[in-house]
């Protein structure tokens, strides 16, 4: 955001350079750079590139340094020599650390975060002392930018620097705003002579003599290139991903006496897991954003959103608990139809009752999460009850009647316990952690499984303390269970040479991942990423004079209603003991194509502002009905990876089937059909300028996303139509399994986590029963 003045580096067309870079050796690190020291501010800029290669893992990176006197409050580098349309690097000291970021500008205004693929890693030579700060960094993916331009590392170029003696607005925040530089300049550089055969040594922290040890690191940043190497412990089962699929799998496998390693790329979530992200008003209680149900809506408005996977282009939780630590926690026990062979389950899966019972025993649902048993902020229930009873709906306790999903409504049901987020983290993970056979490692990223044809040998991680070069082996007959979620597991499979050829070719073209890809004659062609489903969801926004919109949840993190905050802190009761939904309802529709489809409604006080409406409204009285289409839906899409290896939607799955669209339109019209019978009820979105049909037609498909991805590694009968068999084993492998939402062949009737947990219980029981394992 532009806070103060314009930043104005001039474009450089036709400028002659009085300064140009030359080679020098940094006196402290011994690294040889090409660059210069600006004589006015006494700031040194240096660059060194890997040996010249035009493709492969290091073709787009370099190591750079900035050595600046302490008066320099921030320093910027423009890699194309001008401010607009080239990659900008900005850094400043914050205490003993250097805070840095990649930026981009499309005008002479405050540059914003660069959204392309560039990774800055602060190297261990970085330091701050009483007179200077020295930032030594690796910049990967930095010579090619997402506008198609870049640095030609074989020829000459221009660099620009920016200097400021005015501190940035929030030195602790890498994305901080700042005012215009107080000085700037340019210099020419011959990149063709800036390549060094010592580059790998530099990355490893030594100045060029492989036998010498690196200078003592004083930086607080973590470097990926160093770190002790340990001899690896083999495991019977390595489970990748601590979401619901992975946690339930790891718990049951360790309970059966197997030696189990659970690897999670993210870090702590709830207080119980060591999480520390606590709202200002809850300090002292230790209850985190992830514990307190009433903070759910604040997950989507908080700029410090470390919990989302940054390499997946839709919402996905990258922390202990995966989606279940950041989701709305709506929790429905599955019904008969959710596991029917008519929606793609093998017939041996139709009797889900034993597995669902196991889940219920470990994690019962509640529709009154406040510890005092009372319900709070329930005005929408009264309004919906008038509206829906007029449409022939019955008021039921939903999880007492899982099979009853036509013309029913009731209180929203959650996987909260004791007024706090619970889910698999508070239950299954805790029993696993108590077992000596169970090992849990966080902040460990698995890139791929390592295999010899169909035999998986272990997993490749980024943590060299767990095994030589980060490789962790299996015991004889050992097995790997992938539970990385619909996007995470798909990417691991692609990077392991398993999936459609087009995705594997992307890996082959990746500078970071190609080396680990098995040779093409070992590729396993499976429809990974195909068949993807997610509930299309469309919001209707209303006002009613009885409704308390709760400030549209905008104040819950920093400025809650004091009495509600106090009540929650003292008793884990009140408004904060629940997430935002209050009412759910379902109705069945028969489509002209013969499929019965279910529409689900989720009702919450408040709405996402600003509203797109021409009507005036009272924002204190807003509520939202989200209408989803679930079981019976025929639309499917495809997920995969982009060139930067980000998990992404390749073909949108929302309302691509014409009957799906007809049914959701019908459901939306039905919801409002008797509005006039509820005094004071006013529809605000869509407004009176749009018919419901126009509203649906104009609805941005990407905002129909419900984050309920299933079927991307679907269970099924053959490698032609599915990725895993009825034992959750990946086709054409001996010992690789998937247990996560991806194996579910069709969207369940309600939000998916209940069905997923039951499916995980069933899958892990099958895996344990399958001969040939440890
Ligand atoms: C914002 C949001 C709201 C939702 N609301 C609801 C709701 O109210 N009710 C409901 O039923 N469902 C809801 N869902 C969906 C539900 O949370 C998911 O269906 C469920 O979490 C999927 O579980 P999973 O085990 O398949 O994967 P995930 O929960 O995605 O877990 C995967 C885990 O694997 C880790 N991982 C991934 N790749 C790697 C790797 N390479 N190496 C190591 N670790 C890795 C991730 O960090 C993550 O912890 C919501 C989802 C989101 C995102
Ligand atoms: C990248 O390339 C360098 C130089 O060829 C090599 O030493 C290094 O091991 C490679 N890294 C990976 C991860 O393949
Ligand atoms: C501080 O660091 C700079 C840059 O590395 C170095 O030149 C200088 O000698 C150091 N000063 C002190 C007092 O250590
Ligand atoms: C698992 O733990 C149990 C005791 O909890 C022990 O008897 C068993 O030998 C262990 N198995 C493995 C494979 O370590
Ligand atoms: C709906 O059912 C619940 C539980 O059975 C009951 O407490 C509530 O009063 C009912 N509400 C209406 C409006 O029927
Ligand atoms: C491995 O990756 C995870 C997730 O990105 C990260 O948090 C962790 O710091 C990485 N570990 C190392 C040693 O680089
Ligand atoms: C790979 O498997 C084949 C048999 O399938 C075996 O002959 C070979 O030794 C294995 N290679 C390794 C490195 O394990
Ligand atoms: C907590 O619960 C107790 C017992 O019901 C009650 O007396 C007290 O007022 C509650 N505290 C708050 C802050 O609501
Ligand atoms: C607002 O709604 C109109 C239709 O009335 C639509 O064309 C427009 O794209 C919407 N704007 C936004 C920002 O969603
Ligand atoms: C808006 O709604 C609030 C809460 O119901 C009410 O107190 C207020 O008077 C309303 N404002 C107007 C302008 O009607």
From TrEMBL:
Keywords in alphabetical order: FAD, Flavoprotein, Signal
Alphabetized CDD domains for the sequence: CDH_like_cytochrome
Cofactor: FAD
Entries under SUPFAM superfamilies matching the protein: CBD9-like (SSF49344), FAD-linked reductases, C-terminal domain (SSF54373), FAD/NAD(P)-binding domain (SSF51905)
One Pfam family cited in the UniProt record for this chain: GMC_oxred_C
Record's keyword annotation contains Flavoprotein: yes
Signal peptide range in chain numbering: 1-18
Domain Glucose-methanol-choline oxidoreductase N-terminal: 317-340, 485-499
GO MF terms, alphabetically ordered: flavin adenine dinucleotide binding; oxidoreductase activity, acting on CH-OH group of donors
Annotated spans, Disordered: 208-229
Family: Belongs to the GMC oxidoreductase family.
Protein's name in the database: Glucose-methanol-choline oxidoreductase N-terminal domain-containing protein
Protein source organism: Phanerochaete carnosa (strain HHB-10118-sp)
């Amino acid at each position: 955001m532009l806070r103060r003045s314009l930043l104005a580096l001039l474009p450089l067309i036709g400028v002659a350079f009085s300064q140009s870079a030359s080679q020098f050796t940094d006196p402290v690190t011994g690294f040889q750079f090409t660059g210069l020291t600006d004589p006015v501010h006494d700031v040194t800029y240096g660059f060194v590139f890997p040996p010249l290669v035009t493709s492969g893992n290091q073709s787009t990176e370099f190591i750079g340094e900035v050595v600046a006197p302490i008066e320099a409050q921030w320093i910027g580098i423009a890699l194309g020599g001008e401010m607009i349309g080239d990659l900008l690097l900005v850094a400043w000291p914050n205490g003993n650390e250097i805070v840095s970021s990649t930026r981009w500008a499309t005008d002479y205004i405050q540059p914003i975060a660069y959204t392309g693929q560039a990774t800055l890693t602060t190297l261990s030579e970085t330091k701050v002392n009483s007179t200077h700060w020295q930032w030594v960094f690796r910049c990967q993916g930095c010579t090619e930018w997402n506008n198609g331009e870049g640095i030609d590392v074989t020829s000459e170029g221009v660099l620009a620097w920016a200097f400021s003696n005015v501190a940035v607005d929030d030195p602790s925040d890498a994305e901080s705003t700042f005012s215009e530089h107080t000085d700037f300049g340019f210099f020419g550089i011959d990149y063709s002579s800036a390549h060094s055969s010592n580059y790998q040594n530099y990355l490893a922290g030594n100045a060029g003599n492989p036998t010498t040890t690196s200078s003592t690191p004083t930086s607080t940043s973590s470097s990926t290139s160093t770190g002790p190497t340990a001899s690896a412990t083999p495991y019977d089962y390595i489970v990748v991903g601590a979401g619901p699929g992975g946690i339930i799998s790891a718990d049951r496998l360790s309970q059966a006496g197997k030696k189990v390693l659970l690897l999670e790329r993210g870090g702590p979530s709830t207080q119980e897991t060591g999480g520390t992200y606590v709202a200002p008003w809850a300090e002292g209680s230790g209850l985190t954003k992830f514990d307190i149900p009433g903070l759910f809506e604040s997950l989507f408005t908080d700029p410090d959103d470390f919990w989302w996977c940054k390499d997946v282009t839709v919402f996905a939780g990258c922390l202990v608990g995966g989606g279940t630590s950041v989701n709305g926690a709506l929790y429905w026990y599955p019904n008969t139809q959710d596991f029917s062979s008519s929606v793609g389950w093998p017939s041996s899966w139709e009797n889900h009752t034993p597995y669902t019972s196991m889940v219920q025993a470990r994690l019962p649902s509640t529709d009154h999460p406040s510890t005092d048993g009372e319900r709070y902020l329930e005005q929408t229930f009264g309004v919906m009850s008038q509206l829906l009873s007029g449409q022939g709906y019955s008021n039921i306790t939903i999880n007492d009647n899982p099979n009853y999903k036509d013309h029913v409504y009731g209180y929203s049901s959650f996987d909260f316990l004791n007024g706090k987020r619970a889910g698999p983290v508070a239950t299954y993970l805790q029993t696993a952690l108590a077992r000596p056979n169970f090992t849990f490692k966080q902040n460990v990223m698995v890139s791929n499984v390592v295999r010899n044809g169909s035999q998986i040998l272990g997993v490749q991680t980024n943590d060299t303390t767990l095994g030589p070069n980060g490789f962790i082996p299996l015991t004889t007959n050992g097995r790997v269970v992938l539970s990385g979620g619909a996007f995470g597991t798909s990417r691991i499979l692609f990077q392991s040479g398993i999936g459609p050829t087009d995705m594997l070719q992307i890996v082959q073209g990746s500078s970071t991942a190609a080396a680990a890809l098995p040779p093409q004659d070992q590729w396993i062609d499976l429809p990974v990423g195909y068949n993807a489903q997610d509930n299309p969801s469309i919001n209707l926004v209303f006002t009613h004079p009885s409704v308390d919109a709760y400030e549209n949840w905008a104040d819950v993190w920093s400025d809650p209603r004091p009495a509600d905050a106090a009540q929650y802190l003292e008793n884990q009761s009140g408004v904060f003991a629940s997430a935002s939904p209050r009412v759910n309802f379902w109705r069945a529709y028969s489509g002209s194509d013969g499929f019965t489809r279910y529409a689900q409604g989720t009702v919450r006080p408040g709405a996402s502002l600003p509203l797109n409406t021409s009507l005036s409204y009272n924002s204190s009285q807003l509520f939202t009905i989200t209408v989803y289409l679930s079981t019976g839906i025929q639309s499917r899409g495809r997920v995969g990876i982009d060139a930067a290896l980000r998990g992404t939607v390749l073909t949108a799955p929302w309302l691509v089937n014409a009957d799906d669209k007809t049914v959701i339109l019908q459901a939306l019209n039905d919801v409002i059909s008797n509005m006039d019978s509820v005094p004071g009820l006013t529809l605000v979105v869509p407004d009176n300028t749009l018919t419901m049909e126009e509203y649906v037609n104009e609805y941005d498909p990407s905002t129909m996303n419900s984050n309920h991805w299933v079927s991307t590694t679907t269970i099924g009968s053959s490698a032609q139509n599915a990725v895993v068999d009825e034992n959750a084993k990946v086709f054409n492998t001996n010992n690789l399994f998937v247990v996560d939402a991806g194996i579910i062949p069709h969207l369940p009737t309600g939000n998916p986590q209940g069905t997923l947990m039951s499916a995980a219980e069933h899958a892990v029981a099958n895996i344990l029963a399958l001969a040939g394992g440890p």
